[in-house]
Amino acid sequence: MKNLLLNTLRTDGGTQARAQTNEVAVEEYAEAIRMGAKFPPILVYFDAEDYWVADGFHRVYAAKKAGRSSIEADVLDGTQRDAWLYSLGANDSNGLRRTNEDKRAAIKSALDDAELAKWSDNTIAKQCKVSNHLVA
Fold first, then answer.
1. pTM to 2 decimals?
2. Which residue of 78, 79, 99, 120 has the fewest CB atoms within a 10 Å radius of its CB?
């Protein structure tokens, strides 16, 4: 785990698989941070140049809103694409749960990708951590 400066994190590269940011959650998290709450580390992929956020966007936005300059992160070696692939299934069982709209956005993102579009419905479902029926 590393303590990373917020201004070094890339959140602009399409690695957020959610349909949209939940601003209410960001505000609630920011208030909790101001009150001293400790959140789990975010997950980023580092490609030797950039830290690509894969999981923890709401925590990043909340930390910024709370006036923090850094955040704890688990750092994996990998690319922007690795971060995106991970994000497709992030929050399936913890954190701010995905809405059905979020799940559909992840599936659409996968199907819009030339490589993943060749995958079976079952494989896409496993990557996005959703049911096969939702992919179909």
1. 0.93
2. 120
